[in-house]
Design goal:
The chain is of the alpha+beta class. It has 8 helices and 5 strands; from the N terminus they run ααββααβαββααα.
């Protein structure tokens, strides 16, 4: 790929990729892959969870949901390898690829002739890979520089989205605990410090997170305003 085309692709990526909430961000990444990357007709993201389970996120078509699931079941294929083992996997001609004999047969039967997998993120509790599919033999044969560029930009917006999500969760937790403290203050005629200390003792005694204790207390209040 020439420098001018690479620069133009980078510009289009920067316009297409922006962080929102995490689900929205993942959907933008797969949509941008289909729109911007040459040869890509379908895309999805595989998430490998800490317990070893695999999950498909943000698919651009139902066809590849089934193909992702086939790779998880067989433990074979570019999408499986990129999520679990190899950072960058390309298969320009699946029908002739000896690495994935069982999966390739299923992919070709579904009309997919070429595929690539790119690791997007490694986190303490999960790993994620971008899965790219094409109906054309030879797609992704010369793809390394462009895929690394895409992976870098996608990983950046994912990290930003995670920060947004963490902040939103923290704000939600703070609001939930604040509501529970207010209920205890009114119910038991406590000041805010004593009400919070009561929550903390319950959390420690039951070995349950403070937010969950607060949610249980909030659930005891009638939404119509009654106790």
């Amino acid at each position: 790929m020439g420098d001018e085309r690479l620069i133009e692709t980078a510009r289009r990526l920067s316009l297409a990729l922006s962080a929102g909430d995490l689900d929205q961000t993942l959907n933008k990444i797969t949509a941008a892959a289909v729109e911007v990357l040459p040869g890509v007709e379908y895309a999805s993201i595989t998430v490998l969870h800490a317990d070893g389970s695999l999950e498909t996120a943000a698919p651009t078509d139902d066809l590849i949901v089934d193909l992702d699931a086939t790779q998880y079941r067989l433990k074979e294929g570019p999408c499986y390898d990129a999520a679990t083992d190899t950072v960058h996997v390309t298969a320009p001609n699946l029908a002739a690829d000896e690495r994935f004999p069982a999966y390739a047969a299923a992919a070709v039967a579904a009309g997919i002739r070429a595929q690539a997998g790119i690791r997007l993120f490694d986190a303490p509790k999960s790993q994620g890979a971008l899965n790219l599919y094409s109906r054309n033999v030879g797609a992704f044969a010369d793809f390394e520089v462009l895929s690394r560029l895409f992976a870098h930009q996608a990983a950046t917006v994912i990290e930003y989205a995670k920060e947004i999500q963490s902040l939103q969760e923290a704000m939600h937790t703070r609001t939930t605990i604040g509501q529970a403290v207010g209920i205890l203050m009114e119910r038991y005629k406590l000041n805010d410090q004593r009400a919070f200390a009561f929550l903390a003792r319950l959390s420690q005694h039951r070995n349950v997170k403070l937010r969950r204790i607060a949610e249980e207390i909030n659930e005891t209040v009638d939404p119509q305003g009654g106790p």
